Amino acid sequence: MVLNERNVRHDHLLSVAKQMMIAARTAPKGKGIDILEVATITDEEIKILSNEMKNMYQKNSLKFFLRDADNILSAEAIILIGTREQSQGLNCRHCGYDTCAARAEGVPCALNSIDVGIAVGSACATAADFRVDTRVMFSAGLAAQQLQLLPGCKQVIAIPLSASSKNPFFDRKLKEEKK
């Protein structure tokens, strides 16, 4: 039997995506409170996410949304890691307010943000262990948040995945809008 890498690559990448989701879930959380949501999107959902990013470019004229919208189409899967908003009640002042109760509406609890960052790092380390290419994307995460791909999450980060001869998520140039 000859097992060609090209024939098993996609299944392996999805297996790594599952392991990345578990790594994100088991990453340490502030006060041990788990309010993270983690999911993987593929195929049509990636196209929907790309289209949303193009719509966001139309609204905000930030060219990196257009560049990243094209770029994620090279991904075979995208991990989404988000957090629901929940004050941890420490009054730590890390969010800029003296107490959790004084924190303004819409200002995230700093521990929630830190939890997402640790989970993202853990997921990306897992991908690196399996030599799967990634890039952490704020832009795709914000589009996923607007599409409510992780319902109830106030902060979402996206991690596109690829297993190709060159990482498609680096050495990118800003693109002009196609007329």
Structure description:
- The chain is built from five helices and four strands.
- By secondary structure, the chain is of the alpha+beta class.
- The protein has one domain (29-162): NADH Oxidase, CATH 3.40.109.10.
- It starts with a helix and ends in a 17-residue tail after the last strand.
What is the level-2 CATH architecture name?
3-Layer(aba) Sandwich
Topology, number of strands: 4
Which percent range describes the beta-strand content? 5-15%
The third-level CATH topology is NADH Oxidase
CATH classification, class level: Alpha Beta
Overall number of structural domains: 1
Q: Note the gap between the termini.
A: 49 Å
What's the CATH superfamily, by name?
A: NADH Oxidase
- Radius of gyration computed on alpha carbons: 18 Å
Q: What is the helix fraction of residues, given as a range?
A: 40-55%
Structural class label: alpha+beta
Tertiary shape:
globular
Give the SSE layout:
Elements (H helix, E strand, L loop, with lengths): L4 H22 L9 E6 L1 H18 L2 H9 L5 E8 L25 H20 L3 E2 L3 H9 L6 E10 L17
Antiparallel strand pairs: 1-2, 2-4, 3-4
Helix pairs in contact: 1-4, 2-3, 2-5
